[in-house]
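Example record

Each entry pairs one chain with its bound ligand, adenosine-5'-diphosphate.
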Amino acid sequence: MLDVRAVTKNFGRHTAVQDLSFTVRPGAVTGFLGPNGAGKSTTMRIAVGLTRPDSGRILINGLPYDRLAAPLHEAGVLLDARAVHPRRSAYQHLAVLATTHGIPLRRVDEVLGLVGLSGVAGRRPGGFSLGMSQRLGIAAALLGDPGVVILDEPVNGLDPEGIRWVRTLLRSLAAEGRTVFLSSHLMSEMEMTADRLIVIGRGRLVADVTMAELTAGH
Ligand code: ADP
Ligand code: ADP
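Structure tokens for the complex follow.
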């Protein structure tokens, strides 16, 4: 469960997120839709303690991220698939993260298999396609077997086959009772992946609807 409570974040005089409140529940794939600059990344960064809000807070299973006993186990996050160490292999990238957080290395092999990157584990992700980078980012997010999965634009740049692959993965995570929250600026991607939509524009909540409600209204 991810609980966004009255969050406001300003960058100088610019308001990125304004009095934003919503809840993301387990067992479904929830999409976070809004145009570029709407405040999606800022909200996700606040959720995992990388950005401090001016007011309000975001709780993961009832606690702020920095108070979680086992952060990677409770919340896995993909924020920027290209943000990887240039000289580490895909395996090393995950192994460093695992070791830092006390996760056994066999889990690295597991998540590499889960995202279909076992065959390229020894390669440096600098040479990966965007789709492969997204898979590696998703693997990192799933490393701790988290109950809450937060993915910023995970299908950005993927072809339809890649998007279908992500959809299948996200649906299985949700079916296991996890909270799955992914952002996109494209409604077409949301239609392919999400059960429910949180829509924001200019940092404010625009809609909080199920995909079924949305299509019934048209
Ligand atoms: P989205 O993820 O929906 O594209 P962001 O959360 O990245 O939106 O950005 C929301 C707004 O906040 C944008 O206008 C963006 O330019 C601004 N912003 C985001 N991060 C910073 C920052 N570190 N410094 C200044 N402005 C920022
Ligand atoms: P750096 O690589 O910049 O040293 P870390 O990898 O240590 O940063 O991560 C910084 C913070 O982000 C830590 O608090 C860590 O728990 C969190 N973090 C990093 N990757 C993930 C992830 N995949 N899932 C959840 N939290 C993560």
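Strands lie at 2-11, 14-24, 29-33, 55-60, 75-78, 148-151, 179-184, 196-201, 204-210.
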